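Quick check before the chapter quiz. The format below is the same one you will see on the exam, so make sure you can read both the input and the output lines.
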Amino acid sequence: MTEQRLRDLLDHDSADAPPGGVRLADVDARVRGIRRRRGRLAGSVAAAALAVTAVTVLTVDTRPVTRPAPAAGGVWAGALAQPAPDRAQPGLPLFHGYSQGGRRETFTFRAKAEKLSFALTCPTGGYGLVWLNGDLVATGACGPTVRQAPGWFGDATARDGVNEVSAAVVRAADAGTGTVTAAGADLLLARTATYPAEWRLTLVDARTRSCRPEVVRVDPRSGEITARC
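Here is the expected output.
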């Protein structure tokens, strides 16, 4: 309380002073009352401010924010491009054995632009189909007794570099008696379910077929051909 405020208060009280005048104790009590009211008012204001702050804190989104950690200086975080493996293609002669009929089997090899010969051995009553680089090049009945060992099936000319051969064996009864075309071969395979059938495909340089029979040896178990001209 300022001095001026106290004088105004004393003047006001003197105007309506009771008999005997205003006592100092009354003035002191009045001052304490004013301070108490101001203290309660300040406390109310502070409480209201705390309430507003609490509401503000409760309404703030407290979900954690995840940020990627910065990469250490000088450390590259990218992925290194791996070079494609250089798979060497096998050369001739090639021998492949399979255990399912009605399914097209495919492999690749490397050769020069030269004439190739296929030998196909399959169960009795089987029919063979051979493709070279997507073209149907040999079809017909196959089996251990259809042709002379090693069961030569057909010839075709390879291209210089990597070539692809596909082959399949189906039942001769399903193939019919007419000539099988490329479209017919695809349709035949599409209509034939796979079934157990042991068969072998051999691919050699056609010049091997000109060798004398006594120097061409065929392993009866694997079908591997050893020829010396």
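If your answer matched, good. The mean pLDDT is 75.
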